[in-house]
Amino acid sequence: ETPLVSQPVPPDGKKKRIGVMTSGGDAPGMNAAVRAVVRMTIARGCDAYAIYEGYEGLVQGGDLIKKMAWSDVRGWLSEGGTLIGTARCMAFKERKGRLTGAKHLIEAGIDALVVCGGDGSLTGADLFRSEWPSLVQELIDTEVMTEEQVAPYRHLNIVGLVGSIDNDMSSTDATIGAFSSLHRICEAVDSIGSTALSHSRAFIVEVMGRHCGWLAVMAAVSTGADFVFTPERPPEGEDWESDMCKVLQKHRDMGKRKTIIIVAEGAIDRELKPITPNYLKDICVNRLGLDTRVTTLGHTQRGGTPCAYDRMLATLQGVEAVEAVLDSTPETPSPVIAINENKITRKPLMEAVKLTHSVAEAIGQKDFRKAMELRDPEFADFYDTYVHTTIVNDEAKSTPKDKSLRIAIIHIGAPAGGMNAATRAAARFCLNQGHVPLAVHNGFPGLLRHDSVRELSWIDVDGWEIRGGSEIGTNRSTPDIDLGLAAWAFQKHRFDGLLIIGGFEAFTALGQLRRARASYPAFRIPMVCLPATISNNVPGTEFSLGSDTCLNALMEYCDVIKQSASATRRRVFVVEVQGGKSGYVATVAGLVIGAMAVYTPEEGINLKMLQEDVEHLKRSYAHDQGENRAGRLVLRNERASNTYTTEVLANIIREEANKKFEARSAVPGHVQQGGIPSPLDRVRAARLAVKSVQWLEQHAFKSLEERAASETAAVIGIRGAGIIFTPIDVLEETETDIAARRPRQAWWKPMHNILDLLSGRSVPEAAT
Ligand code: ATP
User: Fold this and answer.
1) Which amino acids are annotated catalytic?
2) Residue nearest to atom 2 of ligand 1 (CA)
3) Which stretches of 254-393 are DSSP H helices?
4) Which residue has a Cα nearest atom 16 of ligand 1?
């Protein structure tokens, strides 16, 4: 856990100077990374420097190496691209260029470098570090510098951050920028979808990814595309063109009016021949007679404000990079900061680069199996999810009756982004496995009062991946409104398995059904709860569906009011955030918008806290000069305190500000449910839904006695390093704060500490 207070002097007593640069292609989130590195460096008592224009800045030196102050990076979280510039620098590829770079670094007194870029930039960084001793020696030998001058700089620390929209770096599940790029792609494909539908057209959409199909596959899962082409998994079979036509024609025969094909820039066939959008277009026109257009998304994919995930990733990784610099010794190999299934980790930089290159080599040698294996396991999982939910399996129709399960899907609680995407994926996976997916409409009241149970067909759920709300209807009521009647309905419809999608009520419902198994045998079937709620307060998972959509909606809202606050006059907005008694949404939203303070129910609000925060605000506004009239935000979770309401907080701040600045309250309310679900929620929904049905299958064929065991009623969750099913009784007993309707442990607490650190709330001397 990051300590709350800064350490004015690092452990070894030497004040470090840490340089940060962005290099290679720009990626959304790079600014958030630079902000985090600069502020964390200052908070740790060191000096921060920005190297402008990537390696060009090192080679040219002078004004391109600038000391950064705390306030220099204000407002950078929401900016796309990179504000310190990036460049492709040929000179740095030569030793001579790197020698000049070394000289400039020593002159500026910089002894550590955080490089944010793709594999090329990180290769350059590692080479620079390995050559460093010899470069320093050469500077002495050629009398450019003296022994004394270089003595403190015999060692250079390098830490890598992966900033790249392609997500092509091995060793990390996500690179900074990849999810923002996925946002841009999904926005584009969603728009193309409506015109394709209107004209009954086919569209071939080319997305970025020269050596990596991550963007293409994730976009295909998110948008329900009909076909996808990637570099590392070329289409199988000699005549893949005919196979593709069969799939597309089948989708048309089933009633689809649009056809979307997503092609990665580097898509190839098994003979390494490029598969071009125009070639695909000709096939669609000539063989299927489809009115077909090609859309190349190009540089729009790099642009725009970073999404919530990238701001969070870049911030957490930037903080970790500074910690890694301070931890390193001359012996430690250079690390790259990674993320593996939601854990920020450090990996050896050079190994990550080598692994990345070996994917390209495997593709070059036509060893596609190896190429897929070398990618992160999540990637292969998403590819399978795509196939399971898009390509119709004809053989499923001949599944014998005794192998075909009747799987019920029900939504409980408030709508959350991804509920429909999960229902679509579950229904399609069921159909492909020869099972019968049954939608229970309008929750338990729908089942009990109206017997609303309907079979879902492949085409029924088409397009659901992009819809917000709940297509099958949702209701807050839990089955205890009439357990006997519920059991009767389960029996009547012969449910063999149940998928409950929803928030804390869904969790509660599962607990009730499990307990009622003793009296009602109809409930002795496998049952799984797939958490979906913007509050992200369901025990058993670190992330629920809808929470990412909510964060993005809230972030956009806050970006807008922050802008208005700084444009008009010095103004603080106190924003009331949903989340019930869980401070997750408020905390992470605060982290990604750069809030001054966040009030959570876990921590509560007291007078001392308020007083300190008001002082902090006063100091910050006193420090603002001329043009720099920033708007500031304070987030308050709706249940953080009964006394200090949002309005009261705004009043207190206004009163204390004594006309030096203004304070207003803002309540985004239902805006937080978000409109169209975010790509992350869509892909998570699809992956978790498929896994849930696979789990139901695993248990459904067991003996009656085994099916009644408590582990057959579980919550599926993303936890630490994987996707895990935890029995509901275990969660209820050990992890749930029933009264507060949230998990007992808030795993995200360290993020609150980082937020306080980067907002200057816990580092007063740095902020002023
Ligand atoms: P992206 O792939 O997202 O564009 P990248 O970091 O891989 O990012 P590159 O153009 O490959 O982009 O590299 C950026 C810069 O890093 C180069 O212009 C060069 O200055 C430096 N660089 C790349 N490879 C090397 C190398 N082998 N040795 C030294 N410097 C290198």
Assistant:
1) 166
2) 118
3) 277-288, 308-327, 349-364, 368-374, 377-390
4) 121
Mean per-residue pLDDT, 472-500:
97
Q: How many CB atoms lie within 10 A of CB 137?
A: 12
Q: Is 420 annotated as a binding residue?
A: no
Triad 491, 492, 496: Cα angle to 5°: 50
* Stretch (H or E) spanning 665: strand 662-666
Rounded to two decimals, the ipTM of the complex is: 0.95
Q: What is the pLDDT of residues 742-763, one digit of tens each?
A: 999 999 999 999 999 999 888 7
Average pLDDT over residues 601-621: 92
pLDDT in tens, 88-98: 999 999 999 99
**Closest Cα to atom 28, ligand 1: which residue?**
124
Helices then strands, counting H and E runs in the chain, come out as 26, 24
Question: In this structure, which amino acid lies at residue 737?
Answer: D
Residue 490 CA to residue 401 CA, distance in Å, equals 19
Ligand 1 atom nearest 98 alpha carbon:
29
What spacing in Å lies between the alpha carbon of 97 and ligand 1's midpoint?
A: 14
Structural tokens at position 502: 């929803």
- Whose CA is closest to atom 24 on ligand 1? 120
- Measured from CB, residues less than 6 Å from any atom of ligand 1 are 23-25, 55, 88-89, 92-93, 117-121, 123-124, 127, 164
In the predicted model, is pLDDT for residue 719 greater than 80? yes
**CB of 550 within 8 A of CB of 563?**
no
- Cα–Cα dist 376/174, whole Å: 9
For residue 452, what are its two tokens? Answer: 């609303």
Backbone angles phi, psi at 742, to 5 degrees: -165, 165
| Cα 119 to middle of ligand 1, angstroms | 7
Type of residue numbered 620: S
Contact indicator for 444, 489 with CB cutoff of 8 Å: no
Q: Quote the ligand 1 centre to 666 CA distance (angstroms).
A: 45
